[in-house]
Amino acid sequence: MSRSRELTLGLLPLLIGLQFFYAGYAIRQAWHGYTDFRQLYCGAYMVRAGMRHEMYDLSLQKSIENRIISLSPAVLPANHPTVEYLLLAPLSLFHFRLAYLLWTTLNLAAVAASIILLPVKGGWLKAFLFAGFAPISFAVIHGQDSMWLLPGYF
Known about the structure:
With 154 residues, the protein is an all-alpha fold. It has 2 domains: 1-31 and 94-154, no CATH class; 35-90, no CATH class. It has helices at 3-31, 37-48, 58-68, 82-88, 96-117, 123-132, 134-141. α1 runs parallel beside α7 and α2 (37-48) crosses α4 (82-88). The longest helix is centred in the first third of the chain and has 29 residues, at 3-31.
């Protein structure tokens, strides 16, 4: 076995452990609405409620975020194209926490598809490499939409 492979296999448990430690903190924050998914959910709600022409009005966004998600001293502004919020509009039919869980499940499905499509031998090794790669777990936990780009690379 090569030296770099041994090093990778040796560091993976540490990296995965750090991901679990961070997840414990970040998921509690997300559960209270302090996550990047906040702006996706609010934007989807605004599109579904017919407010797409006011989508980028920060004071309106802040009032909606505070009313339907949780109180926050700052606004997490909508910064995606309106068409993306249209695709996410069905999630806004659910309470924020349930929508967050559904979105996290969809993101994990995108990660699983990426693991399957990755052209490398060793299924478990691929899964552990993804689990130990911090940007993937951060994106999933924070409810970002970047996981949907990942399967397209393979």
